[in-house]
């Protein structure tokens, strides 16, 4: 499935609060940030989306570890995100904001 098809499938079979903003994936931009060809980047992202779709449609528990960002945990119908402290600090230097999110 293509990314747009995945979003459409998930929206038709799931309940989401409010509107979901669709953002096209910019493979060229991502390719410019990593030492891999655009084709490798696109294939890797497509496989990740396919796996994510499989997990969601089969209601399996999993963790997606996003390097230097945090961990997206899916347990049944609950989804939580645990952010790395360094990532939060990079977003806002305010200790108050970081304390509230930790």
TrEMBL record:
Pfam families: HU-CCDC81_euk_2. GO terms for cellular component: microtubule organizing center. InterPro entries: CCD81, CCDC81_HU_dom_2. Residues 23-94 form the CCDC81 HU domain. This is CCD81 protein. It comes from Scopus umbretta.
């Amino acid at each position: 499935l293509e990314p747009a098809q995945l979003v459409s499938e998930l929206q038709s079979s799931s309940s989401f609060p409010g509107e979901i903003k669709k953002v096209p994936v910019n493979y060229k931009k991502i390719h410019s940030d990593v030492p891999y060809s655009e084709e490798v980047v696109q294939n890797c992202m497509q496989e990740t989306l396919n796996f994510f779709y499989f997990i969601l449609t089969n209601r399996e528990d999993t963790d997606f570890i996003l390097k230097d960002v945090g961990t997206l945990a899916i347990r049944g119908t609950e989804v939580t995100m645990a952010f790395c402290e360094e990532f939060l600090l990079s977003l806002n230097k305010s200790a108050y904001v970081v304390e509230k999110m930790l």
